[in-house]
Every structure is written in structure tokens, then in C-alpha cells.
Amino acid sequence: NIQCNLRNVVESVWFDDITMVPYTLMTASPGFEAGAGQTPTGWQQYHPTQGTFAWDTGVSHSGGASVSLTATTGDLSGVPSFITTPVINPLQAGQQYQIGVWARGTATTGNNNLVVSWFNAANAYLGGTSSAALPNGTTTWTQLSMTTTVPDGAAYAQIFVRSGSNTGTVWY
Q: Is the pLDDT at 5 greater than 80, yes or no?
């Protein structure tokens, strides 16, 4: 719990950017604001031949950019995604993180969601957490969120905004 006590306040008071120490989570371009070509800074394309990937400066929930995935497929090794590896310091087993993303779709099908995957120091997959999927069809901006827990032996996490078997377009 974070508690702010104010006494005898006559003027307005604003709070912004509260940080809880010792846990920090840093992700390059979490709002997809900076980038070049079809990929925002700090993000990579996963399975780029299985759909159309775009860094879109014309569509956004807030700020000035988003990413989109259109006409995606997928296979046993995964589905098309934009992926980033956040820096979490310190990383402690059992620690929980709340994570969310805003998503919007046009004529979407399939599974469009947010995933956090955990890996050990040898890059072996330890497990992951998925948000609910964006409803299929045409949607307004919808927040997809979840709570994920650091498993024993985790060295790092990866965050995926995914789109599998989608004949439409999804923006994150």
C-alpha cells in the first residue's frame, strides 16, 4: 500500500510517476513512440514472415504511435508478435507484476493478446502468463491486462503483443 497523508491543504495537489523501490521495470519505448521503419525502438518482430507488421504513427490510443499486426498466421513455434525484453531489477522469484496494453481491432479473428514469458539464464522457457484476448470483430481501444509472477530460476522476461490466425488488423 502507498499512503499519502495531507493536512491543511488549501491548494490542489498532484502526484505523478510513483516508484516503489527496490523493484523497477524498464522497457524501451513502452508507448511505441520512437522507432524507424516498421519496428519501434527496443522491440523486435517475431515470426515476421507470418503477417504484416507496422509501426504506425497515424493510429494511437495516447501519444503518437502504435504497432499493428495484419493477416497473421502462426505455427507450433509461436505466432507473429512484437517482442521486447524489459530490464527488471532486482528479479525475485514470487514477485508479482501487473502489466497491461491497450488494443484495438478492425475485423479481427483468431487470438490477439498480451503475453509475458519467463526464461532462465540458459534461455530455457520457464512459463508464462497470457491476458484475455481482444474480442474478435471491430473494437474500440480495450485494455488487456494481467498479473504475472516471477518463477523460480528466472533470469529475464519477454513481453509479446501477439496476433495469431487473424485475418483483420490489431493495433497495440
A: no
